[in-house]
Design goal:
heterodimer, A: 299 residues, alpha/beta, Rossmann fold, Alpha-Beta Plaits, 2 domains, six-stranded mixed sheet, four-stranded antiparallel sheet, 10 helices, 30% strand, B: 459 residues, mainly alpha, 2 strands, 71% helix, globular
Chain lengths: 299, 459
């Protein structure tokens, strides 16, 4: 089911057979994928699946144990300053300094970036209603999250990486935040990678999807292609069905005499007739939503 | 009662450090007992091993109490604990019982050791007196630590001033009786009274705050202007504070306060001596000054190591340059801490009495220990300060004891071997630190989460 992307020169991110082992435990295994400029990629996985670890490796916080990770063609572990300036990162646990005000925290970041866009930050802070004059210590979770995102946007990065950016926001704020995210990603050269375990967020904004399960990439490709590819098939046969149906790509199966229900990956419409003929059954095909697909893949 | 007892035992066994300290202290006491029985009975000979073991055992026991007091405050501030009914009553009772158990065990050990020693060791006269002295001292120490580091700065300063005044008027304690009562009884009563007052406040307070961290007291960068230099920004991201100077100032203040407190606690030590002519001796206060730069630079270097992640993407610098920046700041902090504290220590060594202790050797040891402490700090990516402190503390205590040993003919060579060895260790740690920083994996050093002591442990 995994789609291995060719790591071309134009890729913003390219991972090749990436593996990471910590304390003898494989956190990431054999991950190969790439991201083209202008994409909004959602990184989906359960808690502890390896999303944050993958982001840490691809941003150079951590060296890979095997394989390679490249950002803008440079090795992640040795990113040069020019490449780092093209990256904006919002970590899962913000790195804000509680004793400062929002404005002071922004000034610190501006001091480290030669091309800091004050006008953009002022506009976004106004639109997002971030109180820059207040101490970070007294900001709400949502306000902190927005401030952390502002810090990542001030130098107008080509690649924006957000680790669970909306997890601490309420539904209203989350929707507003995702709308803003879409606006940010409007530029054809800007690429966004964001991790989440909230499927509805992903459906709203992402065009491509990486699903990570137990440290392995279970899917890397278009969101629509995934929805086309995974279906629920119901079989109703004239005689009792065998226990083992021998159908390729079955993720789950529930059988009860003449009736069986399966979730299949790699679905193509031609398979409907083939199954009906081989098993002597009526075949009903049902398309699944992303949430159902995610649950089935993790069942 | 059951809950309080369970909490009391947790104060000795909750963390790995406490368990190691407890096991170490018990083993050392047992060894001290054996060594004392086999030691030369002639009163003039200096028996190194019983002395060394006794000192180490006593230090480990004292550290358990200090660590428990610190842990007590930290636990009290947890929101999860706040929500548990009667949790603070249980914690207060637990801490009281913990001191009771410690005093009982301590008395037992003193009685055991005491029978073996040639000179009358039960300075306080009887097992009951011993128990009362230990119990009173432990309670007063625990309450003092809570009050001095407590939420009210005024109370903190007042209590510190009171202790300092009593410390300077040690003659008040040079009597077998105070207010017509045996001084052991007075001390036990004072301890219980202090505890009752503290417990009354503690149980009724809304939610006690965590022990003030020296890193969280900053007022932020200049509010008037939000224009900062690149160098300032790098320091702030690494230290979480506006400047290295401010961090060092806080460290200096902390160590000077400890120094004053130890000078004051000389009075407490005199309480434990029956010979009321015990001379004033400030070796413990001087050793705090010597120990200050060692621990201070270790703390600051650890802070720099943990702050480095914030700069990886922001600063654009490679790992090699980040290491160079952190090492430079750490050395600057060593100069800012070392010059005043070592300078003051040299003055005190010259002018304050410290009979029986050669302080020049500990001075040489601590000065040469600072590079090792600095690089040990730069390797402390995970917040494991306690273990680091313990190692440094043991070396410092060793230095103090070594000061006795170098007086003997067979110990002369220690005078130059030990400082040179520490410098070599510092060089080795520097090489290790550079290597670790050049390949640093921040993924492995995520901050550890706070947990409640009442959390159910995995089977």
């Amino acid at each position: 089911m995994k789609h291995n992307g060719d790591a071309g020169d134009s890729s913003v991110i390219s991972l090749s057979e990436l593996g990471k082992v910590i304390g003898g435990k494989a956190i990431l295994s054999n991950i190969s994928a790439n991201i083209e400029p202008g994409s909004i990629v959602g990184l989906l996985g359960k808690n502890g699946a390896g999303k944050t670890s993958l982001i840490d490796v691809l941003l150079g916080f951590s060296p890979p144990t095997s394989g390679s990770s490249r950002v803008f063609g440079e090795s992640s572990f040795d990113l040069p300053a020019a490449t780092k300036r093209r990256i904006g990162f919002v970590p899962q646990q913000d790195e804000l300094l509680d004793s400062l005000t929002g404005a002071q925290q922004l000034a610190l970041n501006a001091a480290l970036h030669p091309a800091w866009n004050d006008a953009l930050i002022a506009r976004l802070a106004r639109e997002w209603e971030v109180p820059l004059d207040r101490r970070i210590q007294v900001l709400s979770g949502g306000e902190r999250q927005k401030l952390a995102t502002l810090l990542a946007l001030g130098h107008e990065p080509d690649l924006l990486v957000l680790d669970e950016p909306a997890s601490s926001l309420d539904p209203v704020a989350r929707r507003q935040f995702l709308r803003e995210l879409l606006e940010i990603a409007e530029s054809p050269t800007r690429t966004v990678l964001f991790s989440t375990h909230i499927v509805s967020d992903l459906e709203r904004v992402a065009s491509k999807l990486w699903i990570i399960r137990d440290g392995r990439l279970a899917w890397a490709g278009d969101l629509d292609a995934l929805k086309e590819s995974v279906v629920r098939v119901t079989l109703l046969a004239r005689d009792a069905l065998p226990a083992h149906l021998g159908i390729d790509g079955a993720v789950s199966q529930r059988s009860d005499g003449r009736r069986a229900q399966l979730v299949l990956t790699g679905w193509q419409d031609e398979r409907q007739r083939e199954l009906a003929d081989r098993l002597g059954a009526d075949v009903t095909v049902e398309r699944l939503g992303l949430e159902e697909i995610f649950l089935e893949l993790h069942s | 009662m059951k809950g309080a007892l369970r909490t009391a035992l947790q104060f000795y066994t909750r963390t790995r450090l406490q368990r190691w300290l407890l096991a170490g202290a018990l083993l050392l006491f047992a060894a001290k007992l054996l060594a004392t029985r086999q030691a030369c009975p002639c009163p003039r000979a200096f028996n190194l091993w019983p002395f060394l073991l006794g000192w180490l055992a006593g230090s480990a026991a004292a550290m358990i109490t200090v660590y428990s007091a610190w842990d007590f405050r930290r636990i009290s501030a947890l929101r999860t604990v706040f929500l548990i009914p009667h949790s603070r009553l249980q914690l207060a009772g637990g801490m009281f019982l913990a001191q009771l158990i410690a005093a009982a065990v301590g008395t037992g050990l003193v009685v055991l050791v005491g029978h073996a020693e040639p000179l009358p060791p039960l300075a306080w006269g009887s097992p009951r007196g011993t128990f009362e002295m230990l119990f009173g001292c432990a309670l007063v120490l625990v309450v003092l630590l809570q009050v001095i580091t407590g939420p009210s700065r005024i109370l903190s300063v007042v209590s510190l001033a009171l202790v300092a005044t009593l410390g300077l008027r040690v003659d008040l304690f040079m009597k077998p009786e105070i207010l017509g009562m045996p001084k052991a009884d007075v001390l036990a009563l004072a301890g219980i009274l202090a505890w009752l007052l503290f417990a009354a406040w503690y149980v009724s307070a809304w939610r006690p705050v965590a022990l003030g961290s020296v890193w969280s007291r900053g007022r932020g960068i200049a509010a008037a202007s939000v224009q900062v230099s690149r160098q300032t920004a790098i320091q702030v991201f690494l230290l979480g504070q506006p400047s290295l100077l401010r961090v060092c100032r806080q460290q200096l203040a902390t160590w000077v306060i400890y120094h004053i407190a130890i000078v004051a606690m000389t009075a407490g030590m005199k309480l434990l001596i029956v010979r009321h002519t015990f001379p004033a001796n400030y070796f413990a206060a001087i050793i705090v000054l010597l120990y200050g730069p060692v621990v201070g630079v270790n703390t600051i270097a650890g802070c720099l190591a943990r702050g480095s992640r914030r700069l990886w993407l922001r600063s654009g610098e490679p790992r090699t340059v980040l290491y160079a920046i952190a090492a430079r700041l750490a050395w600057q902090s060593l100069a800012l801490l070392g010059i005043p504290l070592f300078g003051l220590a040299i003055l005190e060594i010259r002018f304050l009495p410290h009979e029986g202790f050669n302080m020049l050797f500990p001075l040489a040891m601590c000065v040469t220990l600072t590079p090792a402490a600095l690089y040990l700090g730069l390797l402390n990516f995970r917040r494991r300060l306690n273990l680091s402190f313990l190692v440094l503390y043991m070396v410092a205590v060793g230095a103090l004891l070594g000061g006795q040993y170098v007086e003997s003919p067979q110990g002369r060579q220690l005078l130059w071997i030990a400082p040179v060895a520490l410098v070599v260790i510092g060089c080795v740690l520097r090489a290790i630190a550079r290597r670790r920083w050049y390949g640093i994996d921040w993924l492995q050093f995520r901050a550890e989460r706070e947990t409640s002591p009442f959390a159910v442990r995995r089977a």
